[in-house]
Design goal:
With about 250 residues, this protein is α+β, with helices and mostly antiparallel strands. The chain has one domain: Lipoprotein localisation LolA/LolB/LppX (outer membrane lipoprotein receptor (LolB), chain A). It contains 4 helices and 13 strands. Strands 6-5-4-3-2-1-13-12-11-10-9-8-7 form a 13-stranded antiparallel β-sheet, with helices on one face. Strand 1 and strand 2 form a beta hairpin.
Protein backbone atom coordinates (compact mmCIF):
# COMPACT_ATOMS: atom_id res chain seq x y z
CA UNK A 1 0.00 0.00 0.00
CA UNK A 2 1.34 3.41 -0.92
CA UNK A 3 2.01 5.67 2.04
CA UNK A 4 0.37 9.06 2.47
CA UNK A 5 3.75 10.73 2.08
CA UNK A 6 4.50 8.88 -1.17
CA UNK A 7 0.99 9.61 -2.43
CA UNK A 8 1.49 13.31 -1.84
CA UNK A 9 4.83 13.13 -3.63
CA UNK A 10 3.25 11.42 -6.63
CA UNK A 11 0.42 13.95 -6.76
CA UNK A 12 2.93 16.78 -6.54
CA UNK A 13 4.94 15.40 -9.46
CA UNK A 14 1.78 14.93 -11.50
CA UNK A 15 0.67 18.50 -10.83
CA UNK A 16 4.07 19.83 -11.89
CA UNK A 17 3.94 17.77 -15.09
CA UNK A 18 0.42 18.93 -15.86
CA UNK A 19 1.33 22.60 -15.43
CA UNK A 20 4.67 22.42 -17.19
CA UNK A 21 4.96 24.55 -20.30
CA UNK A 22 6.80 23.80 -23.49
CA UNK A 23 8.20 26.39 -25.89
CA UNK A 24 5.68 25.45 -28.58
CA UNK A 25 2.76 25.68 -26.14
CA UNK A 26 3.80 29.18 -25.06
CA UNK A 27 4.23 30.27 -28.67
CA UNK A 28 0.78 28.95 -29.57
CA UNK A 29 -0.81 30.69 -26.57
CA UNK A 30 0.96 33.93 -27.48
CA UNK A 31 -0.31 33.69 -31.06
CA UNK A 32 -3.84 33.09 -29.76
CA UNK A 33 -3.55 36.04 -27.34
CA UNK A 34 -2.46 38.32 -30.16
CA UNK A 35 -5.51 37.43 -32.24
CA UNK A 36 -4.84 34.02 -33.76
CA UNK A 37 -2.68 32.79 -36.61
CA UNK A 38 -5.34 33.32 -39.27
CA UNK A 39 -5.71 37.01 -38.46
CA UNK A 40 -1.97 37.53 -38.16
CA UNK A 41 -1.28 35.87 -41.50
CA UNK A 42 -4.03 37.94 -43.15
CA UNK A 43 -2.12 41.15 -42.45
CA UNK A 44 -0.11 42.18 -45.52
CA UNK A 45 1.20 45.56 -44.35
CA UNK A 46 1.53 47.59 -41.16
CA UNK A 47 2.08 51.32 -40.75
CA UNK A 48 2.79 52.73 -37.29
CA UNK A 49 2.99 56.42 -36.40
CA UNK A 50 5.24 56.90 -33.37
CA UNK A 51 6.31 59.55 -30.89
CA UNK A 52 9.84 59.04 -29.54
CA UNK A 53 11.54 60.65 -26.56
CA UNK A 54 15.15 60.03 -25.62
CA UNK A 55 17.36 62.01 -23.26
CA UNK A 56 15.38 65.22 -23.77
CA UNK A 57 15.06 64.89 -27.53
CA UNK A 58 11.67 64.33 -29.15
CA UNK A 59 10.97 62.95 -32.61
CA UNK A 60 8.17 61.54 -34.70
CA UNK A 61 8.58 58.41 -36.76
CA UNK A 62 6.74 56.31 -39.28
CA UNK A 63 7.45 52.60 -39.38
CA UNK A 64 6.18 50.65 -42.40
CA UNK A 65 6.46 46.93 -43.02
CA UNK A 66 5.09 44.79 -45.83
CA UNK A 67 5.15 41.11 -46.68
CA UNK A 68 7.24 39.24 -47.37
CA UNK A 69 10.26 41.13 -45.99
CA UNK A 70 10.11 44.88 -46.64
CA UNK A 71 10.71 47.50 -43.94
CA UNK A 72 11.15 51.28 -43.88
CA UNK A 73 11.47 53.69 -40.94
CA UNK A 74 11.49 57.48 -41.17
CA UNK A 75 12.54 59.71 -38.23
CA UNK A 76 11.83 63.44 -38.22
CA UNK A 77 13.58 65.86 -35.84
CA UNK A 78 13.48 69.64 -36.23
CA UNK A 79 12.31 69.40 -39.81
CA UNK A 80 14.95 66.90 -40.95
CA UNK A 81 14.02 63.31 -41.83
CA UNK A 82 16.29 60.28 -41.68
CA UNK A 83 15.32 57.08 -43.47
CA UNK A 84 16.45 53.46 -43.18
CA UNK A 85 14.93 50.75 -45.34
CA UNK A 86 15.31 47.21 -46.64
CA UNK A 87 13.76 46.03 -49.91
CA UNK A 88 14.24 42.30 -49.43
CA UNK A 89 17.70 42.32 -51.00
CA UNK A 90 19.61 45.44 -49.95
CA UNK A 91 19.44 48.05 -47.23
CA UNK A 92 19.88 51.80 -47.54
CA UNK A 93 19.60 55.00 -45.54
CA UNK A 94 19.44 58.77 -45.69
CA UNK A 95 21.29 60.45 -42.80
CA UNK A 96 20.80 64.25 -42.88
CA UNK A 97 21.93 64.55 -39.26
CA UNK A 98 25.36 63.39 -40.44
CA UNK A 99 25.31 65.77 -43.39
CA UNK A 100 24.30 63.05 -45.85
CA UNK A 101 21.14 63.99 -47.72
CA UNK A 102 21.56 61.48 -50.55
CA UNK A 103 20.62 57.80 -50.14
CA UNK A 104 23.46 55.33 -49.60
CA UNK A 105 23.76 51.60 -49.11
CA UNK A 106 24.37 50.50 -45.53
CA UNK A 107 27.07 48.28 -44.06
CA UNK A 108 26.71 44.66 -43.00
CA UNK A 109 26.08 45.37 -39.31
CA UNK A 110 23.12 47.65 -39.91
CA UNK A 111 21.90 45.43 -42.74
CA UNK A 112 21.62 42.44 -40.40
CA UNK A 113 19.50 44.47 -38.01
CA UNK A 114 17.16 45.56 -40.83
CA UNK A 115 16.86 41.99 -42.10
CA UNK A 116 15.75 40.84 -38.64
CA UNK A 117 13.27 43.71 -38.45
CA UNK A 118 11.92 42.78 -41.89
CA UNK A 119 10.78 39.33 -40.68
CA UNK A 120 7.10 40.25 -40.95
CA UNK A 121 5.73 37.63 -38.55
CA UNK A 122 8.71 37.74 -36.20
CA UNK A 123 11.12 34.93 -35.29
CA UNK A 124 8.61 32.81 -33.33
CA UNK A 125 6.01 32.09 -36.00
CA UNK A 126 7.23 29.27 -38.30
CA UNK A 127 10.53 29.39 -36.44
CA UNK A 128 11.59 25.90 -37.56
CA UNK A 129 11.32 26.72 -41.28
CA UNK A 130 13.32 29.91 -40.69
CA UNK A 131 16.19 27.97 -39.13
CA UNK A 132 15.61 29.42 -35.65
CA UNK A 133 15.68 27.39 -32.44
CA UNK A 134 13.51 28.04 -29.37
CA UNK A 135 14.06 26.83 -25.79
CA UNK A 136 11.80 27.17 -22.76
CA UNK A 137 13.87 28.68 -19.93
CA UNK A 138 11.28 28.43 -17.14
CA UNK A 139 9.84 31.23 -15.04
CA UNK A 140 11.86 34.42 -14.54
CA UNK A 141 11.19 37.85 -13.07
CA UNK A 142 10.31 41.10 -14.85
CA UNK A 143 10.08 44.04 -12.45
CA UNK A 144 9.30 41.63 -9.62
CA UNK A 145 6.56 39.72 -11.44
CA UNK A 146 6.70 36.19 -12.83
CA UNK A 147 7.09 35.73 -16.57
CA UNK A 148 7.56 32.77 -18.88
CA UNK A 149 10.93 32.98 -20.63
CA UNK A 150 11.91 31.69 -24.06
CA UNK A 151 15.38 31.72 -25.60
CA UNK A 152 15.28 32.27 -29.36
CA UNK A 153 18.45 31.70 -31.36
CA UNK A 154 18.23 32.97 -34.90
CA UNK A 155 19.81 31.21 -37.84
CA UNK A 156 22.48 33.93 -37.96
CA UNK A 157 23.47 33.33 -34.31
CA UNK A 158 21.81 36.34 -32.69
CA UNK A 159 19.93 35.54 -29.48
CA UNK A 160 16.68 36.96 -28.11
CA UNK A 161 15.04 36.28 -24.75
CA UNK A 162 11.25 36.69 -24.79
CA UNK A 163 9.27 37.22 -21.58
CA UNK A 164 5.49 36.58 -21.50
CA UNK A 165 2.86 37.55 -18.98
CA UNK A 166 1.68 34.23 -17.42
CA UNK A 167 -1.95 35.38 -17.41
CA UNK A 168 -2.32 36.95 -20.86
CA UNK A 169 0.63 35.31 -22.69
CA UNK A 170 1.41 38.68 -24.27
CA UNK A 171 5.06 39.68 -24.55
CA UNK A 172 6.19 42.13 -21.85
CA UNK A 173 9.96 42.19 -22.32
CA UNK A 174 12.61 41.21 -24.84
CA UNK A 175 16.37 41.06 -24.38
CA UNK A 176 18.67 40.88 -27.39
CA UNK A 177 22.26 39.71 -27.83
CA UNK A 178 23.43 40.87 -31.23
CA UNK A 179 26.85 39.76 -32.44
CA UNK A 180 28.74 42.41 -34.39
CA UNK A 181 32.27 41.74 -35.63
CA UNK A 182 33.01 39.31 -32.82
CA UNK A 183 31.56 41.47 -30.04
CA UNK A 184 28.13 41.24 -28.43
CA UNK A 185 25.70 44.14 -28.07
CA UNK A 186 22.93 43.69 -25.51
CA UNK A 187 19.70 45.64 -25.22
CA UNK A 188 16.40 45.45 -23.36
CA UNK A 189 12.92 46.39 -24.57
CA UNK A 190 9.81 46.47 -22.38
CA UNK A 191 6.35 46.81 -23.88
CA UNK A 192 2.85 47.39 -22.57
CA UNK A 193 -0.45 49.26 -23.03
CA UNK A 194 -1.76 46.59 -25.40
CA UNK A 195 -4.75 47.52 -27.53
CA UNK A 196 -6.63 45.72 -30.27
CA UNK A 197 -6.41 46.92 -33.88
CA UNK A 198 -8.75 45.02 -36.20
CA UNK A 199 -8.78 42.19 -33.68
CA UNK A 200 -4.99 41.99 -33.30
CA UNK A 201 -3.22 43.03 -30.09
CA UNK A 202 -0.37 45.53 -30.35
CA UNK A 203 1.72 47.20 -27.62
CA UNK A 204 1.13 50.95 -27.73
CA UNK A 205 4.06 51.82 -25.48
CA UNK A 206 7.61 50.56 -25.18
CA UNK A 207 10.97 51.54 -23.79
CA UNK A 208 14.37 50.33 -25.01
CA UNK A 209 17.86 50.77 -23.63
CA UNK A 210 21.35 49.24 -23.81
CA UNK A 211 21.53 46.57 -21.11
CA UNK A 212 22.94 48.04 -17.91
CA UNK A 213 22.35 51.62 -19.06
CA UNK A 214 18.61 52.33 -18.72
CA UNK A 215 19.08 56.08 -18.29
CA UNK A 216 19.81 56.38 -22.02
CA UNK A 217 16.61 54.57 -22.97
CA UNK A 218 14.15 55.67 -25.64
CA UNK A 219 10.43 55.83 -24.85
CA UNK A 220 8.13 55.09 -27.77
CA UNK A 221 4.42 55.84 -27.81
CA UNK A 222 2.31 54.53 -30.68
CA UNK A 223 -0.07 57.19 -31.93
CA UNK A 224 -1.67 55.19 -34.72
CA UNK A 225 -1.54 51.73 -36.28
CA UNK A 226 -2.93 51.00 -39.75
CA UNK A 227 -3.21 47.49 -41.16
CA UNK A 228 -3.31 46.40 -44.80
CA UNK A 229 -2.63 49.92 -46.06
CA UNK A 230 -1.59 50.16 -49.73
CA UNK A 231 2.20 50.47 -49.86
CA UNK A 232 4.03 50.12 -53.14
CA UNK A 233 7.15 47.92 -53.24
CA UNK A 234 9.07 50.82 -54.78
CA UNK A 235 8.73 52.77 -51.52
CA UNK A 236 11.25 50.40 -49.97
CA UNK A 237 13.81 50.63 -52.77
CA UNK A 238 16.66 53.09 -52.68
CA UNK A 239 15.94 56.08 -54.94
CA UNK A 240 18.52 57.13 -57.51
CA UNK A 241 21.75 55.40 -58.43
CA UNK A 242 23.33 53.16 -55.75
CA UNK A 243 26.08 54.74 -53.72
CA UNK A 244 29.22 52.95 -52.64
CA UNK A 245 28.68 50.55 -49.79
CA UNK A 246 30.53 51.66 -46.63
CA UNK A 247 33.27 49.41 -45.36
Amino acid sequence: MISKRNLLAVLFCLSIGASAQTADEIIQKNIAARGGLEKLKAVTSVRQTLAIEQMGFKATATDERKRPNFTRTSFTIQGMTAVSAYDGASGWRISPFQGKKDPELIGEDELKSLQEQADFDGPLIDYQSKGNTVEYMGVDQVDGDDAYKLKVTLKNGDIFYYYFDPDTYLEIQRESQIFVRGSMRESVTQMGSYKAVNGIMFPFSSESWPKGNPQTGAKITVQKIELNVPVDDSDFKMPGAPASKPK
